[in-house]
Design goal:
MgtE N-terminal fold, 3-stranded antiparallel β-sheet, 3 strands, about 60% helix, about 5% strand, disordered N terminus
Amino acid sequence: MTNSETTAVRSTEELLEWWQTLPEDEQRSAFADLSPAEASGLFLALDSADRAYILAEQADQQRRVWLRLLAPDDAADVIQRFPEEEHHDLLSLLDQHTWSQVEALLTYRSDVAGGDEPPLRPGPTVHDSRTGRRVSPATGAVSE
């Protein structure tokens, strides 16, 4: 999508429809090309799997911005999509108050069977529930 096409995308519904039509290998770069207003609108409208997919390739400075945009329960949903060994690093990007809330939610969810989110997947990957693929946050490598 070019910058002129990006400016034509206005509503959250249009952004979501556009996002869903993109090939997976183009989604991250297309997201990066959005205006800040469009990117934040789309990010807030995405599910936790898509949010984690976007964050998996970003530097901590960008992750901080996006995680702090989310409500604590949404941030917990996203962090839960990452391998458990990455939780502390992701939590450290939040302010102290939100960190406490998100940490409590993650602890609660791991202690209670039948939580809303699926259990963490083993290994150093983010599970992409849209395609069933596993994406390495470090390399972006995709495995079936």
